[in-house]
């Protein structure tokens, strides 16, 4: 009688346990096993990816960066184009453009779809890095599959205009801004102000002034309209045409909205300086210095030098005239006395 190999020194309980395990494996559906396997690898990545989105929406960009890096770490083979996109957007929000460029480039290279949003963000980052030609390539890719005037189209068109503007191609930028504004009545603030300021760069002062004034007189609701910026620009246009009173009126309107607007104070100072109203100019220059912030260091130094020069000049002008020397009147000397004996 031949002995079964399973009876050689194998306890009965262990044999039964192994049989149960084998039967469970054999009976389990292949789909269920695959699902469990995928969850074990993709679960942590997806969890961190969603956590990163929540942090980004709250403005916690450092938290978003940490979460998306974890999502990429847990992703199989580092494949996580959506996490790379969110990582790039978080770096972009922090103005860390080299890191944003790296993450967004990775997202577009991994994407299995048109990746319009990733190409748009990459174009924006390229513009900030002064890579204008590459930005143009990316913005053209962002257009792929978009329908005119719908969805992401408006943001892509605005980025195209903005890149041309920063590149110094103002005529083409004006055309793109105009197309982005859509039909009248215009309701989109950013392309409208972009068009007006592009005209100012081209020294088309009248066209720019009329464009800016259109924002003030329109009956349409313009979301995000910045009255301070509009009146400031209108004052600059008026000054360029030699209309000092209109410039003064517009800048005073800026200060009605915000008494601490440093740019309005600086423009007033420059105009008053040119008119030789030195005391008033010095007052406005000092307002600008008090309101100046980060990035204004160079302008502050120049303004301080100008104040010093004006105060010296003002001291000369305001000084009283020099006192004229008045000769001292002395009584005339007595007549000379006769010498010798009198003649009598």
In short:
The protein has a domain of 105 residues: Tetratricopeptide repeat domain (Serine Threonine Protein Phosphatase 5, Tetratricopeptide repeat), CATH 1.25.40.
Strand content: under 5%
The CATH homologous superfamily of the domain at 41-145 corresponds to Tetratricopeptide repeat domain
The best one-word shape is globular
CATH topology of the domain at 41-145: Serine Threonine Protein Phosphatase 5, Tetratricopeptide repeat
Q: How far apart, in Å, are the first and last alpha carbons?
A: 196 Å
Q: What would you report as the Rg, rounded to the nearest angstrom?
A: 39 Å
Low-confidence stretches: 1-10, 32-38, 338-344
- The number of strands is 0
Mean pLDDT over all positions: 86
Number of helical runs? 16
**How is the main sheet built?**
none
Q: What does this entry look like structurally?
A:
By secondary structure, the protein is mainly α. The chain has a domain of about 100 residues: Serine Threonine Protein Phosphatase 5, Tetratricopeptide repeat (Alpha Horseshoe), CATH 1.25.40. About 70% of the residues lie in helices and about 0% in strands. The chain is built from 16 helices and no strands. Helix 4 runs parallel beside helix 6, helix 8 packs parallel to helix 10 and helix 11 runs antiparallel to helix 12. The radius of gyration is 39 Å and the shape is globular.
